[in-house]
Amino acid sequence: MGPPASEQARHPLGNGVDVPSPTSGGTAHVLQGERALATFQTIDMTHKLDGGPAKTKRRRWIMGASRGMELGAQKYHMSREQLLERHVKDFLEIHSSFGQRMGDGKFKPTREEVAWMSEAAMNSGPFWDHYVPFLTALQSQASDEQFAEWGVRAAKLQIIGSYAQTELGHGSNVRGLETLATFDQKADEWVLETPTLTAIKWWPGGLGMLATHAIVYAQLWLHGKCYGVHAFMLQLRDHEHRPLPGIELGELGPKMGDNGHDSGRLRLTGVRVPRSNLLARYQWVTPDGRYEKPEAVASGPSVPLHYSSMLLTRASWVQLAGGQIAKAAMIAVRYSAVRRQGSAGAAVEGAAERQLLDYPVQRRRLLTQVASAYAVKFAARRLLGDVKALEDPHVPVAEKARRMPALGAESGTLKAMATLMAADGIEDLRRCCGGNGYLLSSGIAALSLDDLWHVTAEGDFVVLLLAAARFAVKRLSAEAISSAQAKPSLMNSVEDWMDAEKILEEFRRISAVRFADAAVAVAGAKARGCSEEDALNEAAEQLVAAAAWRGYQIFMEAFWAEATGTASGDEGAADMTPEVRVALLKLCALFGCHVAAQGGAPASLQGGMSSATAPQGFAGQARQRLCQDLRVDAVALVDAFDYEALYEASKLSDQDWSEPFQGYSAFLRPSLDVAYLQKGSLQAAASATALESPEGSLKSPSIAVSQSRL
Amino acid sequence: MGPPASEQARHPLGNGVDVPSPTSGGTAHVLQGERALATFQTIDMTHKLDGGPAKTKRRRWIMGASRGMELGAQKYHMSREQLLERHVKDFLEIHSSFGQRMGDGKFKPTREEVAWMSEAAMNSGPFWDHYVPFLTALQSQASDEQFAEWGVRAAKLQIIGSYAQTELGHGSNVRGLETLATFDQKADEWVLETPTLTAIKWWPGGLGMLATHAIVYAQLWLHGKCYGVHAFMLQLRDHEHRPLPGIELGELGPKMGDNGHDSGRLRLTGVRVPRSNLLARYQWVTPDGRYEKPEAVASGPSVPLHYSSMLLTRASWVQLAGGQIAKAAMIAVRYSAVRRQGSAGAAVEGAAERQLLDYPVQRRRLLTQVASAYAVKFAARRLLGDVKALEDPHVPVAEKARRMPALGAESGTLKAMATLMAADGIEDLRRCCGGNGYLLSSGIAALSLDDLWHVTAEGDFVVLLLAAARFAVKRLSAEAISSAQAKPSLMNSVEDWMDAEKILEEFRRISAVRFADAAVAVAGAKARGCSEEDALNEAAEQLVAAAAWRGYQIFMEAFWAEATGTASGDEGAADMTPEVRVALLKLCALFGCHVAAQGGAPASLQGGMSSATAPQGFAGQARQRLCQDLRVDAVALVDAFDYEALYEASKLSDQDWSEPFQGYSAFLRPSLDVAYLQKGSLQAAASATALESPEGSLKSPSIAVSQSRL
């Protein structure tokens, strides 16, 4: 239960080392004390999180690349333009030589490593769009010749790309894009056009300021026939970084966070690019205007193969979400260890203040988010492994096409749930830091803001969950439905809800039941005469709930596999100590009973109502016991994330203000009773002067104070 | 169910008026169409919300004071210093003459009117702290002589005040404050001191930049004895706005939002103020160092009477929370009416896109927040009425002291729940606007950010709920406990959950059951040997849940009273039309079944799985039906809030950036393949030139496009 509440916190002048003073909070010893309580070695847990000691070494090497570039709280005082400048400078400093080697085919970071880089970024910005969606799209959709021209230059940072898909009027529904690419056979060119206000490309990172090129998604029109959305390479800016003719570029304006990232808009008026700018790995147009596909694609199943770049983006966002919850949990747990507070309405006057960590509601809020961070990190590793397997060049295109839909549903579910869990979880952790969490200098405030857009970007969470559920429900047999509905719950005690294996089994059952319920709802609507589409729309609430539960099931599966050392591709499994295993099994069970206790949905899916009203019941009681149990490991569990401390001082604020503030003379001063203020300041001066004279009753007020208390 | 999805949205070039074009989204007709569907007259609902036509008139007059001061999206491009300057300018322009009249006793805005003013503020800032906590504290705690000196000047804006209570190490626990006020009898002065780092005054609005004076809360020490926390008047700055000796002032730095509001810190080193600067309505110190109280207070019950300023602050925050949910709901509902989207995975290629309002999950998220806005607004009116009754000078001090604890618990509960519902609800509404909700220019993003601090400020929500629950649970008789536990639920059908009166009765029952559960948990812990304090801490989860349910009960009570025209002090009850009543009863039931469906249904309290994500449960089904029913009123229900449209363009962003961006030449250009970019731009120029020649195959690409589609 942690060290007993110390008396030190109550005596401002204390009586030893590391006590509160005018220059110290007297808390330097607190975290050391917490660390001594842990039931496992922190480094062992770090190895587990990374996937073995070798990966820890590699991750530290990668994350070390940005050492010395920390902006600290300074970044909250920088303009957007300054943030972008700094991003460009730092990013090129780190990546230029790697980019050259990558372009020459001598270096290729793994997807996991790219995600580590994103996590380590001190000031993230639009180069992410260049290397992740833009380059990934080239890798998957460009022909070899095209890749040699654009891909190699992009890797070497000789051209900078943006990924221009979404439009002002069109987000998740890619098929509804309005941008047109009309083939002009005589000129052997595509005419690119955004014909309406709602067709303007809207949001692409880097488009507004940084990019020289973009991959533009547009409806391909050939001899009066539309072939659907295709990707086209477009040069945006010339060698002096001026927009080319017919291209109107702009930036969308300040956002809630992530302001080093320029978000662009693009209006195209009669812009022409060569016929060969259509990305041509899976189709091309001949000079005489025929639309052709390679044999393997033409004869294979019809699947949007260019979605593979989307799968990768989703997988990295899941990993990033885990990292962001982890960082926020680290700040909030450490803050809650150091911060003490008197209990509200405490009956005993002068009772020692408790550490925030020892308040049950606070402890539960913190530890369940720690559990979420582990769950999301482990699920990200599983998803990255699955996506990597799909990228294997030895897998035939047809096989890839066969696997893609299920992976699309799973990645969409995980992306939706992980980004929701991150957005809601980080915000709750921020609130755990009280008012100070509202200051950007706390670090945790910006974590909350910078990530918030992931919830709705690249697939809104409701849209993704619906799509995943539709996919699953259409494949559900009548037999599967009745067998799911017939299976009873085996959870009959608090102990059942403390057992990770039983919880996993229960989550599988609930997920199946939820899908069965959704299928029944869809069938019911159809029986009442609804079309397939209307029936699916009517059952949307059930479908979303089912997909959310499938997500929780995957998180539990991934967590369980890691805790038991059975995760596929876990190079560190052999190194796991029994102590780490015990702690992970508790944390895994905590994740599960928390999901159950809060009703199986993140607050966002419940309409924004907070889960402050935690229900009791078996799952709730199990959660309470596990939180008591894991209390001693709280600090070690977040230490294991292996981040640098993120606290920064608030002193930098002074540079933003003049004294007196701008507007004082023109507006405030004419209202003030200046004579009265002057009188008051003269009194204060007289009082200070009296103090300095030998008759002054108190030489040094602070000594006087200390004497008066002894 | 709204108008059928129009074909217009699919055809970029359309065939009539108000259709998509390069300069129009073609959506101007949409809201007019929605308004025509409503079942009630919008103005009747506005009157209801305001409390009658006379109040609507008064509110519009008050809110109109800031007309012409709208900053629009421009404010997101202003520095903090510019925001403060503008706040000072605009605030003084509006308030100077009223301030004079208020100081002369000729004008006093009601609490409700003050809250309307806060809602109308275009750029809120630290004058709020001056007029709300500072002036309110003077009204309640200063002696008449003191009020004549400071209160009158404050009302006239001749001195500007801040409210310096919280410290770096001390937030909710006022008794733990470390700032010292030691009486120096010889000098007849108080010595004010912040002896430690954690004692620094931290957060007070206006303290860093604006204020000339502050009310400082400090431990009163007299002849070596501590009398607890008292309030002292301190002049901070002289007639040239320079800090006085011994006073170190600063600003805490950028925050997530609310950045026109300067948040200050204050370090005091041996600062001296006259003995008479102790606020002296309820106690004073004589020249010979005796601590005295007026007769009525000395003989009355021991209650912290200076909490009345806190009650008022809480009440205004509840009202503000209702207003902020309302504004966010207005933006999100209108956006969802105008925005169309193809359904994910829609089977029918080319099917018309639906309005977002016609997607069940989106519709539920929107309408339940509309219901929340109404519930919070009505509860705020009830609370303001109760607090106003307490301010009545005819009520004897002893009677006030008797009423204060219960009102403290109720106001704390409502403040906690309303600010939580606002923070979580506005954020969910923001997400309902997709990616565009992340842009500050959407308006809704800043609504979310600017209000977020209310959740933890002036009493963290967990601390407030705990305090309220402790208060209630200690007064619970054994009889009340067993009678609560014996009462069965009467909710047995979907219809029951569509009936606001039945839901209210059920909420009363659940709230009683929750308090009984909490009392049993406390008693159980005590029986195991826990101290009272430890037992209360151990039962914290149950106590918080009980207080939250009590909060929902109050919201339902207030809503029901307004919907049935039985709210006390409702001047507009007689004017309510039957149509308004019908709509309000539905909305009231929607609020109730949403609360139940999202985690409070009795079935979920008994262990095992909650029905929170079981939309097939009774409450969930009722919610779905009510949302279908209220669909036609969606736009009218938010129109009734009577705010100006908040949409702003994003074009202003351009002013923040240079072209090319800062850092282009120094950092990016050396990396680029300049020759390749130049080659590309020459090609583009050649292509454009070819087009201008008579041989150009397409004169105007956009006409060509339109022809190719016809």
UniProtKB/TrEMBL annotation, chains A, B:
Domain Acyl-coenzyme A oxidase N-terminal: 44-160
Active site: E458
Keyword Flavoprotein applies: yes
Signal peptide: none
Keywords: FAD, Fatty acid metabolism, Flavoprotein, Lipid metabolism, Oxidoreductase, Peroxisome
Domain Acyl-CoA oxidase C-alpha1: 307-472
Gene Ontology molecular function, alphabetical: acyl-CoA oxidase activity; FAD binding; fatty acid binding
Record-annotated Acyl-CoA oxidase C-terminal domain positions: 500-644
GO cellular component, one term: peroxisome
GO biological process: fatty acid beta-oxidation using acyl-CoA oxidase; lipid homeostasis
Region spans: Disordered: 1-28
Cofactor: FAD
Location in or out of the cell: Peroxisome
Residues binding FAD, per UniProt: T166, G205
Sequence similarity: Belongs to the acyl-CoA oxidase family.
UniProt name for this protein: Acyl-coenzyme A oxidase
Species whose genome carries this gene: Polarella glacialis
